[in-house]
Amino acid sequence: MPKLRLLQINYVHLHGSFENLLGDLKWLSWQHCPLEKLPSDFLLENLIVLDLQYSNLTSESLPSPYPSPGSFIRAPVSSFFPASVLNLPSIRILHFSDCNLSDGDFPIGLWSLLTLQRVWLDGNSFHSLPSSVSQLPNLELLSVDNCRSLQLLPELPPKLVWLYANGCTSMEKLPNLSNANKFLRLYLMNCTRLAAIQGLEHLSSVRLIAIEGCSDMATAFGDSFFQGYSEHAETSDMYLPRRHIPNWFNNQNMGSSISFDIPPFHAEQKFLGITLWIVYESTKDGPVMTLSPEAIIMNRTNGAELRHTCPLGYGPHNPGRHSWVCRIPVSYLGYPIRGGEQLEVLFEINQPLEVKQCGYHLVYKPNIEEYDQGQSPHVDEDVDSAGIMVDNMRPTRAHRKQVVSFLRRHWSLVFQKDDGLKKR
Asked: What is the pTM of this model?
């Protein structure tokens, strides 16, 4: 089968020789693999995506070569990863979720696969990840959702944009984020022991922070974090375990809408944008799955309308009151603000969630200079467009069987013409 590029054989038990059979394969989906180890002639040197979710492969401690500067290092293979995994020079995407991985199941060479871009390790049993994870130069997405024994993450790789660590109930703090990617999205919902995020003060332009259900983080964000606003900031969204809008947010209203006029401002002032805040509550006792809230900003003066939905998408929400905070820069509005405009903001949210309180805060350059963290004005449009793709494509357990849809979303990454990584 020299032209075979995609092979899905979930649950299948194969026998026979694989020599010279799958050399051009790009994508292998073998969920619930019944084998204890992959065949020795299972050569996948051109493989880009390897999906072995829900499997429990085992292997003897055989030496496996993997490239190292100037030499070949021989390293023992773990009880899970087959030797062939460490010899995949083109691999970019690994799916090893729900495979009962523990701390001893990561071979040294796994984190030397420098082509890795996205790694899913959800639902496993390890307590930590090796520090060498931080050295992966091209890793953009790391998912460890529902790894309930995970206590510590290493320093994040320099290009990491999406960190999914929802439901990591043993994790108490994150690594220092001072040097993290400014487009970082942090998904940390229901990390019930999480009490600190080091370097948080340097994340005034972070694109998404979701910490609903992290009760110990309720007071971790000081007022200066919300008042800080880079002149070149993109939209950013935060889900927080806070029951009230802070007092300095002096334009508040009960219910799901608020109207206001943009006051005239002096020539030396520069209007930067609007920070919106809502408090919402579920009418049900337990967690619910629903879409993210949406803010509709209507300019009654010129008739323009803008809709902003948090990139969290469809996800869980906990009982009790929580907050959604979003920053809307003036560039996102699509028209200049000169003062005197009449605006109305409506907040829409799906049942059983209800908006209890809302507010807005207008931001001008003289008001934020003391908080400005000096964010770079450069905006990587490719990263942003990829963010839209990955935020919407991220598979949940309910959707993992929708292989066709998932394939479409990865197609450009897997089957691009060049052999190397797509340049940013």
From this structure: 0.76
